[in-house]
Amino acid sequence: MSLHQLSLSLQFGRFDGAAAHRAVLPRHKVTRWIRHALASDAEITVRIVDADEGQALNRDYRHKDYATNVLTFDYTQEPVVTADLVLCAPVVEREAREQNKSLEEHYAHLLVHGALHAQGWDHETSEADAQEMEDYETAILQELGFADPYAA
């Protein structure tokens, strides 16, 4: 399988417990996970933030006043995908715990999910689109050695 090129900027905000998140997200793993989700070359910034920054961004850009797991800011899809993926560490950590997943496994899923959004995939347009996106995410994650993220 030929993977597309990725120029990655990986950033960590300052927050309690950041070291644990940084340890789970070495550059080579983040790059590998995102590259498996790419249909073309990309320039992507991944930023791991605290709840305050995550909530402010979600409020200011999506008009939803809470911290969410991943926000995708997509700028171009052709000829190169350019996007920012912002992941809220406390939300990711809480969800991983609630879903009985490792932190690494949940980050991998959310990075694949965000990368698909950056390329125009949308699960909020219809049930069929949601199912298609979930199926594709599952296939990518299984290719990476992870379990189906949507399995009950």
CATH first level: which class? Alpha Beta
The name of the CATH superfamily reads Metalloproteases ("zincins"), catalytic domain
Order of helices and strands: EHHEHEEHHH
Major sheet description: 4 strands, mixed
Distance between the termini: 30 Å
Unreliable stretches (pLDDT < 50, length at least 5) are none
Give the helix proportion (percent range).
40-55%
Residue share in β-strands: 15-25%
Task: Identify the CATH architecture.
Answer: 3-Layer(aba) Sandwich
Shape: globular
In terms of structural class, how would the helical and strand content be classed?
alpha/beta
The fold-level CATH name is: Collagenase (Catalytic Domain)
* Integer count of domains: 1
State the main characteristics.
alpha/beta, 152 residues, 4 strands, 47% helix, Collagenase (Catalytic Domain), globular, four-stranded mixed β-sheet
Structure explained in plain terms:
- With 152 residues, the protein is an alpha/beta fold.
- It has one domain: Metalloproteases ("zincins"), catalytic domain (Collagenase (Catalytic Domain), 3-Layer(aba) Sandwich).
- Helices cover 47% and strands 20% of the residues.
- It has helices at 18-24, 27-35, 51-62, 89-98, 103-118, 127-143, and strands at 6-12, 42-49, 70-76, 81-88.
- The protein has a four-stranded mixed β-sheet, with helices on both faces.
- A hairpin with a 4-residue loop joins strand 3 and strand 4 (81-88).
- Helix 4 packs across helix 5 and helix 5 crosses helix 6.
- The model has no long low-confidence stretch (mean pLDDT 96).
- This is Endoribonuclease YbeY.
- Belongs to the endoribonuclease YbeY family.
